[in-house]
Design brief:
The structure is a homodimer of 222-residue chains. By secondary structure, the first copy, chain A, is an alpha+beta fold. Chain A folds into two domains: 72 residues, Glutaredoxin; 116 residues, Glutathione S-transferase Yfyf (Class Pi), Chain A, domain 2, CATH 1.20.1050.10. Helices cover 54% and strands 6% of the residues of chain A. The first copy, chain A, has eight helices and four strands. Chain A has a four-stranded mixed sheet with strand order 2-1-3-4. In chain A, helix 1 links the parallel strand 1 and strand 2. Chains A and B meet through helix 3 and helix 4 of A and helix 3 and helix 4 of B. Chains A, B: It holds the Pfam family GST_N_3. Chains A, B: One of its GO terms (molecular function) is glutathione transferase activity. Chains A, B: One of its GO terms (biological process) is glutathione metabolic process. Chains A, B: Homodimer.
């Protein structure tokens, strides 16, 4: 059985869960509290991060970007990447946009300050970081709106890994009630399309002990 | 003519220059002072980062990770990626290791503190960051040595994008004399093999005005 070593509120793990669900692959989730830095886990992934994916033939893949590419190559159908090198480059540009830039400017400032510090016992939230995150998210929601105003999905006419990467980040921030959907209707409409997909259901069923999501989190008509 | 919009000491740009050289592709370098945030450049790449690659058919690719994948797909020969999905995953894991982890733990603490702040006029180097960078680099050089002790190159028997990504970072730190090669002979031997390649020559000829490299920088027998 395939395994995904993960954390429920990690946007990178959520992206891979969405990919696995979209591709209809069976897998088992294994939680790893990465902050404990267990030697057994560091032997699996010296970077000490999740997700780590173990395929049914034992192939082990570390890093969500590498896992995304691996799954696309190994399980091509249904595709989450377009066909030409240039179109793929646009998908990848946006995956990195969300996994690197959005992550640094928004996810780290909000989710990590509010949730990770609490889970890991590494101090209290930094209010300046939270303000920055709440400010930065607006510009990214604007950008999503700008993209879907010109295209059906973020990277083009078909849904791709770029949409899943972006939605994975936003889903974690939605879990802590930090996405101002009302002020960004085009981004909300795009997210609603994703949230309504079958692949999204496991994410909407997540419940982290001690950190209940807001009422609208699992609501498809938010 | 292909163009690479770049900065001479950006490790991400250097990685792509190495790829272009290894693949024997002609291209022209165009320097972009990204910190000026010129509107014309932001229209080309809204992330405001270099490298940006413009292919001979006008295809524009932003983000060094996306450019690396694009070039591999569009100009497959000679290959810088292995054949199987699992082997590619190991190359990608290491590319991300250097472009994300090493970058954050070492390059940002040393190069950005010492050089970028000066070029951009954004203050004086933070001595605490520099100390952290000098400390962190040891553990990465150790890891390189550990890998090449088990494999011919970082990701396996053939030289790949992983070696170029790692060498690109180290070449920028070598430019500012911050790599303790003497204490890590296996990493030094590996770097020497890369530095001796024809693809490396343009990097060794770089000279940033006001920031001369140390004497050993271009020396193949360092």
């Amino acid at each position: 059985m395939r395994r995904l070593i993960h954390l429920p509120l990690s946007p990178f793990c959520r992206k891979i869960r969405l990919v696995l669900e979209e591709k209809g692959l069976d897998y088992r989730l294994v939680t790893e509290k990465v902050w404990l830095r267990r030697p057994q886990f560091l032997a699996v992934n010296p970077a000490g991060t999740v997700p780590v994916f173990i395929d049914d033939d034992g192939t082990r893949v570390c890093d969500s970007l590498a896992i995304g590419e691996y799954l696309e190559e190994r399980y091509a159908d249904p595709p989450l990447m377009p066909v030409t090198a240039a179109d793929k480059a646009e998908v990848r540009r946006l995956v990195y946009w969300f996994d690197l830039k959005f992550h640094q400017e928004v996810t780290a400032n909000l989710l990590y300050e509010k949730v990770n510090k609490r889970l890991m016992g590494t101090g209290t939230p930094d209010s300046q970081a939270i303000r920055a995150g709440l400010d930065n998210i607006k510009y990214h929601l604007e950008y999503i709106g700008w993209l879907v105003d010109r295209r059906n999905w973020l990277a083009g006419e078909a849904m791709t890994l770029a949409d899943l990467a972006a939605a994975a980040h936003l889903s974690t921030l939605d879990y802590i009630g930090n996405v101002p959907w009302d002020r960004f209707p085009p981004a909300r409409d795009w997210y609603q399309r994703l949230k309504s997909r079958k692949s999204f259901r496991p994410l909407l069923a997540d419940a982290v002990p001690g950190i209940p999501p807001p009422a609208h989190y699992a609501d498809l008509d938010f």
